[in-house]
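Give me structure tokens for this 457-residue protein.
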Amino acid sequence: MQYHDIVIVGGGPAGLSAAVAARKAGISDILILERDNVLGGILNQCIHNGFGLHTFKEELTGPEYAARYIAQVKEEKIPYRLNTIVADITHDRRVTYINREEGLVTIQAGAVILAMGCRERPRGALNTPGYRPAGIYSAGTAQRLMNIEGYLVGKEAVILGSGDIGLIMARRMTLEGAKVKVVAEIMPYSGGLKRNIVQCLDDYGIPLKLSHTVVDIHGKDRLTGVTIAEVDENKNPIPGTEEYYSCDTLLLSVGLIPENELSKGAGISLNRVTSGPNVNDRLETEAEGIYACGNVLHVHDLVDFVSQEAALAGENAAEYVKRKTAQEEEKNATEDGTRKSAAPEGESAAAEARGDVKPAHEEPGRHKVPLIAADGVRYTVPQFLETDGMRDSVTVRFRVADVYKDRYISVYYDDQLISRKKKKVLAPGEMEQVVLTKKSLAEYPRTERITIRTEVE
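Here you go.
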């Protein structure tokens, strides 16, 4: 069976960044597996700008951002396979993939990095009444058809959902001459970045109707219109608020779901809020040596944060492989008699016999401290820290559950307030973060839980 030190599943922004970071950390045997016919992932169809301000300190389009990392992968001579579907990953890091050239192949990985990204929530999840006429697309599908295939998907459009892709497609269709009549959002707040609401809707006079949803789809062969209505606090349509919009296109931007069928197949538990794996501060899942990063872990708002997170996963996977390699070499040296042959005496011999003496390259301790999301914080990534082996600092990312104004983001070690930061506005569409330091945790060595919450004065 073939062996590779690190196998990366996914050649999008997360997979590319993780590969480059692992190579720079000293791992030469890396393999990227990508199902598309090119590297770059979803960025290839995101021809708008706004990428790279954090990573490269300049504004780039999606393809330009991807090209920077693709160039690094090629410069580092990191091998990759395109048009390759990963069929299975086991708990002990055996990866089975299939492609036209090799057929069905199973390889053993020293470490696996999951970077499969996410997918769009389909119409079937919405339970919207009506026929299934032509003209209904997920926003990402419409984006690919327009930006890569060169097709205008429609001339009069309604968009359901105000996620970032839907907002960007409202502008994109307008620039191509289509009329976007309205963006309806079932929540009382937008799910997208504030800048996208301004640049993609406000600048083009496209109305955004919050607390509204599509209640009927008209047309049998081709979409002829939709009816939208206001919803109450329970998301139920309010009778008498229906409005009809004639259109030939309905775009759905109703949420993204991490692509985690392979994770479940490997026996990795998924977080009920993020739908991504539960991970520690090294982004390692419950399965030893399997790491997760990017949108397969939790849906990000900025690709720059994806790259930062993936680089951390790549570095930690590299450290894991090097540690395991050193342990194996030490074991082989012992078996070959190359170490000092004299047996330990007294307590040392008894300790070694019991297994109390740790190898020189034993992996870090596993003292786990859970991170608790409370009072307006929906989730945290990571979900727990392993304090004995943590880095000097750990960035914890999270989203809030609603729009809040003039609130503090507070961090507690058990019941002890550690830090507070006031925010004028907190919104679900904007990812937030706090930084925990090893030094601060050392001051509270008995900490059993870390809570991140929002608080009023």
